[in-house]
């Protein structure tokens, strides 16, 4: 049987609406908070407050559990954006540090080259009738039988064809074979067409240094007579010569390399002398071009 509504509210013309449980709990909390501010400690309302808090605790726990996943999602999103921002900052910082390290390495190499060059130019072994022009390697022409480099100085610096070229510490590199106003091509001593008259420092045995067949950076001292004495470990330098106002292409006494093996056979007219060059031709990044002091600048 349906329950009849109270006649009093209807008679008064008042519509009765049930309050939701959550709204009721919120209002109850407000009431308890109001009492907690107005009542004294240990007063008559203390018990009511304690009982109210006990009743409302399950609602507070439930609300907290519902809200926790949203708080976790917010914190995770915030952490993700922070991590991405930090990673971008670290990548930028790492790139900057890498560039600084590269620049320092280049500066260190250039400083090392200049120190060697200054020491060589100021030493007694530097050919006194030449000026040294410092040059940086800017290209390495590719070729199966060609060994050459291109440097960043040319005729505008007084460079000419057949000028000798040495390393920063004075070891023989090769010869200028082509010149433009701002660059020069240098034929390395390891090229198949290159050759230099040379002499053994210890025994004064002479020969011609040239490229060794079948290798890229090994040299041989050719045309050494069988009666001449040459041993492993001997130093080989350019022979050089001067006669009737003429001079050899290479100055006298430029270091070339060290003897690594000596051999001979009954059928050969000359000894077979192999040389390990002092220059690492594959790692050249700067050289010194020797320009004769006697040259007229207009030549």
Blueprint (SSEs and pairs):
Blueprint: H1 7-12, H2 21-38, H3 46-121, E1 130-139, E2 148-151, E3 164-166, E4 172-179, E5 184-188, E6 195-200, E7 206-211, E8 219-225, E9 235-238, E10 242-243, E11 246-247, E12 255-263, E13 270-277, E14 286-292
Antiparallel strand pairs: 1-2, 1-14, 2-5, 3-4, 3-14, 4-5, 6-7, 6-9, 7-8, 8-13, 9-12, 10-11, 12-13
Tell me what you see in this structure.
The structure is a single chain. With 299 residues, this protein is an alpha+beta fold. The protein folds into 2 domains: 20-122; 131-292, Beta Barrel (Thrombin, subunit H). It has 3 helices and 14 strands. The chain has helices spanning 7-12, 21-38, 46-121; strands spanning 130-139, 148-151, 164-166, 172-179, 184-188, 195-200, 206-211, 219-225, 235-238, 242-243, 246-247, 255-263, 270-277, 286-292. A 6-stranded antiparallel beta barrel has the order 1-2-5-4-3-14. It has a 6-stranded antiparallel beta barrel with strand order 6-7-8-13-12-9. A two-stranded antiparallel ribbon has the order 10-11. Helix 2 (21-38) packs across helix 3 (46-121). The longest helix has 76 residues, at 46-121. The protein is elongated and about 125 Å long. The model is unreliable at 5-16 (pLDDT under 50).
